[in-house]
Amino acid sequence: MCNHKSITYHEMIKLKIPMVDTYFFKKEHVRHSPPLEYPFVMKESIGRSGKQVYFIQSNDDWNRYQHKLKTNDLIIQTCDVQLGKDLRVFVIGKKIIGAVMRENKDDFRANFNLGGTAKWYSLNKSETSLIHRIIHQYDFDLIGIDFLIDHNGFLLFNEIEDVVGSRILSATSDINLLKRYAIHIKNRLTN
Questions:
Q1: Which residues contact 28 (CB under 8 A, 6 or more apart)?
Q2: Is residue 11 part of a domain?
């Protein structure tokens, strides 16, 4: 599920998890004119690490990025959010390990590997409840759940990384994610 954003979004819709308006297309069905007003974001369903995600602001962008598409399943989303800012929540099993706010002043994507910064973030009760609605429905091991931030500061689901890196968690806390994950694996094997 996590390796295909379209499938993930459909699962989150079933759980009534808030997200930006999201539209699903096949590459061959994308029109010459865009289906939304500018600006919007276009993603390939199987992109990773902020790659295959395009910020479309004009007809030139629309035409240029269509030629870069490598896969058939596309997602187009409104972008009425705080651009260049997102929240990554680290989860092992059914337990929230920590959260990191990522920010990039030079790009609409907040990814650390694209020049973004990161700082520790303390989740509030409402945010924790939202995350638990997701993690209690699935049998995850180690994941990162990414949320966009709306203009009122509320979380909007963005994606689940099932092969989540831990650089930003290590940079913002003293949490030993590898140790916790090894304990989780050992517990699963003994049960």
A1: 72
A2: no
pLDDT in tens, 138-165: 999 999 999 999 999 999 999 998 878 8
Count CA within 13 A, CB hemisphere, residue 2: 19
Q: Which of 79, 3, 88, 4 is nearest to 42 (CA)?
A: 79
Q: pLDDT digit string (tens) for 75-106?
A: 889 999 998 899 999 999 999 999 999 988 86
Helix (H, G, I), strand (E, B) or coil at 99: strand
Query: Pick from 78, 105, 122: which residue ends a domain?
Result: 78
4 in a domain, yes or no? Answer: no
The CA–CA distances, whole Å, from 137 to 78, 104, 106, 143, 158 equal: 27, 31, 36, 14, 17
DSSP run (H or E) holding 169 = helix 167-172
Range of the domain at 44: 21-78
Structural domain ending residue among the three candidates 38, 57, 78:
78
What span, in angstroms and rounded, lies between the C-alpha atoms of 54 and 128? 30
**Same domain as 117, residue 61:** no
